Amino acid sequence: MNRKLRIAVDCRIEDSQQGVGTAVLALAKALSDSNIEDQEYTFIVREDMRDWLAPYVYGPCRLVGIPVSTFLHGKGGSSLDHSAQTSLA
């Protein structure tokens, strides 16, 4: 059986100019350039940050933009609501 390992990377940051933004760009570029065939990477970003990361996501990677209004805030940080989760399936 040939199954892919699917990995989601939550990149919902507000300021791409900070150090985390640079690290996310480097990670997206490195994974997009990789020749790994049995893994698929999904980068989750805020919809308003989609254009920032899109040029670095290709190959075994894909990009999912989540509208800011779909974030749920609670103890321990934010999480995706059901409609956002189904867009990742």
Index terms:
three-stranded parallel sheet; 31% strand; alpha/beta; two-stranded antiparallel sheet; 89 residues
Characterization of this structure:
The two termini are 20 Å apart. A three-stranded parallel β-sheet has the order 1-2-3, with helices on both faces. It is α/β, with parallel strands linked by helices and 89 residues long. 29% of the residues lie in helices and 31% in strands. The chain has one domain (5-88).
Which secondary structure elements does this structure contain, and how are they paired or packed?
Elements: E1 5-10, H1 19-33, E2 39-46, H2 50-53, E3 61-66, E4 71-74, E5 77-80, H3 82-88
Parallel strand pairs: 1-2, 2-3
Antiparallel strand pairs: 4-5
Which structural class should the secondary elements be placed in? alpha/beta
The fraction of residues assigned to DSSP E strands is 25-35%
What proportion of the residues is helical, as a percent range?
25-40%
- CA-atom Rg in angstroms: 13 Å
Number of helices: 3
Question: What is the average per-residue confidence, as pLDDT, rounded to a whole number?
Answer: 83
Low-pLDDT runs of 5+ residues are 74-78
What composes the largest sheet? 3 strands, parallel
What is the 3D shape?
globular
| Spatial ordering of strands, largest sheet | 1-2-3
